[in-house]
Specification:
single chain; 4 strands; alpha+beta; 5 helices; Aspartate Aminotransferase, domain 1
């Protein structure tokens, strides 16, 4: 919810929570009660459910966009912030990312996520929120 709250929590009944409040003095009661209100009133659950639905739609749309450009997608899940894909059958994702940068599209080459910095990877780490942007597909078609 917010790192500024600095509160951990335990789901329990009210009696145990009251004992905790009496015996524990290291965190702010105000922050604890704020967190309790956020979690208890139902708005947070509805908000997270809406976010999950949006993420599922974005993931499906991203997979469709990658399919349209004949990308190889690694391990597609129902919802994910990122997808790993090999685009245009390129073997070096860093060189490919440079080509895309010339078209004003920024990619995260898979090599930067590797423990071995000198490893060449064909995979790119792609944010699903941007895969349906027409500029992405246009840039890919121009490079192809």
């Amino acid at each position: 919810m917010s790192a500024a709250l600095r509160v951990g929590f335990l789901a329990c009944d009210a009696d145990l929570a009251n004992v905790k409040m009496l015996t524990h003095v290291s965190s702010s009661e105000y922050c604890e009660r704020t967190l309790d209100a956020i979690v208890s009133d139902g708005h947070f659950l509805r908000h997270t459910n809406r976010l999950q639905d949006r993420l599922k739609r974005a993931t499906a749309t991203g997979v469709e966009a990658l399919t349209r450009v004949n990308a190889t997608t690694f391990k597609v899940s129902e919802q994910s912030l990122y997808l790993w894909a090999r685009l245009l059958r390129r073997d070096d994702s860093i060189a490919f990312a440079r080509e895309m940068l010339d078209k004003h599209v920024i990619l995260a080459p898979g090599t930067i996520f590797s423990a071995q910095a000198n490893t060449v990877s064909p995979w790119c780490h792609l944010n699903v929120a941007y895969l349906n942007d027409p500029r992405f597909e246009k840039a890919l078609r121009e490079i192809a």
